[in-house]
Every structure is written in C-alpha cells, then in structure tokens.
Design a protein that fits this description.
single chain, 239 residues, Immunoglobulin-like, four-stranded antiparallel β-sheet, zinc ion binding, zinc-finger
C-alpha cells in the first residue's frame, strides 16, 4: 500500500492507514492467495445463482463477486466448516464400512440381492397457491418391495455422481428400495424449502407407492438466504 501520500504524513514516511483501508488491503491479499491455490471450476461449494451473485454452499453465504468469495474461502468460518465437514465424512465413512456399506456416500445395499429393474414413476409439477413456490411431486411404484423395506431418499450434488460429467447447475434426487434399482432424478440446483409442509415423504404400504414432495424456495429467499437482519418474507409470515 502507498502510505506516503496520506494526509499529515511527511514525504517518504508512512502514514497511518484507516481501518477500512487495512481491511481492503487484507481482502486483496487473501484474494491473491486464494487465486494461487483454488480453481473455482473444481470447487464443489462454489455456485453462481440466477441473479449473478456467488454462493458458498458450505457456509450458506452470498457474495457479489468472485474476489469476495475467494477471500471468504481463506477466512476462519469457511476453514472451520471445511474441517467439520472432513471430520464428519471420515466418521460417516468409517461407520458405513463397519455396517457393510459399499462406500462413504452410497445407499445401503444388502449383499446377494438380485435387482429386478427400475420402478415405475410419475412426476407432477406443483405451485403453492399462497407463496407461489414451485415444486415437484414424485410418485414411485414399488409393487414387489419387501414388507420390511421402506424406500429411502437423499439429495446428491453433481460432484457426487459418476454417471455423467458434473454440472454445478444441477443436483439429483436419489430414491432406493430393494430389490429395485436405485433411481435418480436430475433437478435444478435450487435450494429446497425444508419446512415440514413443503418437503415430505410418505410410503403407502397398501398400494406400495412412495410419495416425495419437494418445494423450491422463492427467488427472494434464495437470493438473500443467510443475510443477517433480513425481514421475513410474506410467505414466512403467512405460515
């Protein structure tokens, strides 16, 4: 930084930098450091949303430019969350290996089970009449599923799957139930509303049909998610 041209400083001397100037210099140094060590195209937590802002999917923060995101990755919050995620993945992988799982992120599979094919399914687009939130309703048929088997569902990022080239604009809804093949549905990488009335699953034991309802957050909630001091939206007030 150039300190000699600051007000009140002598030529050749270093003036006292303000707090804002010091913070700006620190952010620039962190951004340059991150550029040397991070490739944003391979960062699984880096996401550019539909309004042009950048999001950290690990810390749920929003950034106006890539420099702000890079500086965030060098901060204490992001590094702490990375350590927690690594410890959690290591613990989860160890437990699943002990229980006979095929991998750290695999769906539980019983050995020597003969698969009988893919289940039938139906997908219906939905929209909440009050909040105008868009969503999807999945109806999956498992007529030959075992009496003690309940289908399981999870969300998978584009970087976890090995079927096609990863595209961070998409995510996957994976549903598994023996002895059927595990099926996955490709969705937009939009944040899902986890409220009990917006996201739910139900298995009808009589008809052997599995229901999954997901609802995406509104554009306002996606854009300002995690912003401190944000007033609640109209949709939250109505619930």
């Amino acid at each position: 930084m150039d300190y000699q041209n600051r007000a009140g400083s002598k030529f050749g001397g270093g003036g006292v930098a303000s707090q804002s100037a010091t913070n700006a210099d620190r952010r620039e140094r962190l951004r340059k450091l991150a550029l040397e060590t991070i490739d944003l195209d391979k960062d699984p937590y880096f996401f550019k949303n539909h309004v042009g802002s950048f999001e950290c999917r690990l810390c749920l923060t929003v950034h106006q430019n890539d420099g702000s995101y890079l500086a965030h990755t060098q901060g204490r919050k992001h590094q702490t969350n990375l350590a927690r995620r690594a410890a959690k993945d290591a613990q989860l992988g160890k437990r699943r290996e002990e229980e006979g799982y095929t991998g750290a992120n695999a769906v539980q599979v019983r050995r020597n089970v003969v698969k009988i094919g893919r289940p039938g399914y139906q997908i219906t687009k939905t929209r909440d009449p009050i909040t105008r939130q868009q969503g999807l309703l999945f109806q999956i048929q498992y007529p030959d599923v075992g009496t003690d088997v309940v289908p399981r569902v999870r969300f998978m990022s584009a970087y976890e799957q090995k079927v096609e080239e990863p595209d961070k604009a998409y995510q996957y809804l994976v549903v598994a139930a023996e002895p059927y093949d595990t099926c996955g549905f490709k969705l937009q990488a939009r944040e899902v509303d986890r409220s009990s009335d917006k996201y739910w699953t139900w298995f009808d034991q009589d008809s052997k049909e599995f229901w999954v309802q997901i609802t995406f957050k509104t554009e306002r909630e996606e854009r300002y998610s995690g912003v401190p001091g944000l007033a609640p939206s109209a949709s939250r007030g109505l619930r």
